[in-house]
Amino acid sequence: MKPLLRYQGDFQWEGVPVGPYKAEGTHFRGVTRQTLLGPDAGLRCELRYFEIEPNGHSTLERHDHAHAVVIFRGAGRVLVGAEIFDVRPFDLVRIGPQTWHQFRSAPGAPLGFFCLVDCARDRPVQPTRAELGALRTDSQIAAFIRT
Amino acid sequence: MKPLLRYQGDFQWEGVPVGPYKAEGTHFRGVTRQTLLGPDAGLRCELRYFEIEPNGHSTLERHDHAHAVVIFRGAGRVLVGAEIFDVRPFDLVRIGPQTWHQFRSAPGAPLGFFCLVDCARDRPVQPTRAELGALRTDSQIAAFIRT
To answer: What are phi and psi of B48, to 5 degrees?
Structure first.
């Protein structure tokens, strides 16, 4: 393992490929992934850098494992549970177990963020039709979410 | 747990106290700590922000657990094993088990970095006199280290 992964500017790191956020799906838009620390790094967490192009969004989902995110670039909004927050660089977002969450970039700016998760974790799930209905009873959440 | 820890500018986060790097010791100089994610955040790693004032240094130490660091501010140099690297913002430094390491800020700049470690980890140890002697057989390391 190389001790140093040099930052190259332009939100990329030396030798780290920019890959897809998820293998497939229509429940997200304009998101890339860079794995900065994988399970081979010897920690019990992984560190990824995700970037959402302007007017894009991550998947609306929840899971048992916790997330922690440090915003790194741009601007956007985040749904965490029943709250929607404006976020900007270096804000820290903490997402507890089984908490619905979705990241949206601003119309005119990308949203880049570091995301920290346990190596051992469950798979995210998306809302059922009934769960979506329940989420949409809140008009602000209804206007925010993208599916 | 609040979902959002707002970045306040000036390398500080809302409600996060700036505390000492370690409780005591003369083996470091001018270092502060902010705990951004403690063991209560529900992840198996903790995230801390350390800052070394100009011309300061962290402890020269090693331990069984791995470290990962994202440089956030300023400039400095890092010893990892037998190598010394110049580092600048957003470089990623990976420190494997039982690897001697020390962070030094530049004479004219602080060095701020995020440090990721497992919640369950062993205590760092400093070099014995014999280990220091062995480290100092390399003239570059001898010139770099501070004890």
So the answer is: -125, 150
Q: Is B85 helix (H, G, I), strand (E, B) or coil?
A: strand
- Count how many Cα atoms sit within 13 Å of the Cα of residue B23 in the half-sphere of its side chain: 0
In the block, which residue shows the tokens 């004479």? Answer: B107
Going by C-alpha positions, the residue among B55, B116, B82, B4 that lies closest to residue A42 is B116
Q: How many CB pairs under 8 A join A and B?
A: 125
Query: Which candidate, B87, B58, B92, B84, places its Cα nearest to that of B74?
Result: B87
DSSP string of B99-126, one letter each residue: --EEEEE-TTS-EEEEEEEESS-PPPBP
Count the neighbouring beta carbons within 10 Å of the beta carbon of residue B110.
20
B97 interfacial to chain A (CB closer than 8 Å): yes
Phi, psi (degrees; rounded to nearest 5) at B127: -70, 145
Q: Which of A4, A43, A93 sits opposite B93 (nearest CB)?
A: A4
The yes-or-no answer on residue A115 being catalytic is yes
Sorted by where each begins, the domain ranges of chain A are 29-144
Cβ separation B47–A7 shorter than 8 A: no
Q: What is the ipTM, given to two decimal places?
A: 0.94
Looking at the partner chain, which of A2, A47, A81 has a beta carbon nearest the beta carbon of B3? A81
Residue pair B69/B115 in contact by the 8 Å Cβ criterion: yes
Cα B43 to its chain centre, rounded Å, is: 20
- Kindly tell me if the per-residue pLDDT of B23 is higher than 80: no
Q: Taking CB atoms and an 8 Å limit, are B5 and A92 in contact across chains?
A: yes
Q: By the CB < 8 Å criterion, does B19 face chain A? A: no
Beta strands in chain A (DSSP E): 4-5, 7-9, 12-13, 19-20, 29-37, 45-57, 67-74, 76-80, 83-87, 92-95, 101-105, 111-118
Domain B29-144, classified CATH 1.10.560.10, yes or no: no
In A, minimum Cα distance to B117 occurs at A43
Q: How confident is the model over A82-115, as pLDDT tens digits?
A: 999 999 999 999 999 999 999 999 999 999 999 9
